[in-house]
């Protein structure tokens, strides 16, 4: 998952427009996990295992890093309530990764439409 975080940051680096940067990063996240459903399942399995073992810190650290990245992206876009929306976007992204394993033919345009409503940004 650390590699994905680095990839997401790299994806946003070359995009000057903050709104386009948000879309580039969120689409990359969804595609990176959607292209490899086994990676998604491995991440969920790992998260559950470390929580059950009483050592949730590694999973929490990644979740915190994702939350910080999304908050930064929304703040840079000028979203007034970026803190609250970043929490909602994170929950949506985590849930959507699992939903895309269950429904692999889910169109990115449908996901983007839903994310538009949650993020407060134009599609």
Q: What descriptive keywords fit this protein?
A:
6 helices; mainly alpha; 0% strand
The CATH superfamily appears as Tetracycline Repressor, domain 2
**Count of the separate structural domains:** 1
What is the count of DSSP helices, taking H or I runs of 4+ residues? 6
Query: From the coordinates shown, what is the CATH architecture?
Result: Orthogonal Bundle
Amount of beta strand:
under 5%
- What share of residues is helical? over 70%
What would you report as the Rg, rounded to the nearest angstrom?
14 Å
Residue windows where pLDDT falls under 50 for at least 5 positions: none
What can be said about this structure in brief?
Helix content is 80%, strand content 0%. It has 123 residues and is mostly helical.
Descriptive report:
The protein has 123 residues and is mainly α. The protein has a single domain, classed as Tetracycline Repressor, domain 2 (Orthogonal Bundle). Helices cover 80% and strands 0% of the residues. The chain has six helices and no strands. The chain has helices spanning 2-13, 18-34, 37-52, 57-76, 82-102, 108-119. Helix 2 runs parallel beside helix 5, helix 4 packs across helix 5 and helix 5 runs antiparallel to helix 6. The protein starts with a helix and ends with a helix. The relative contact order is 0.15.
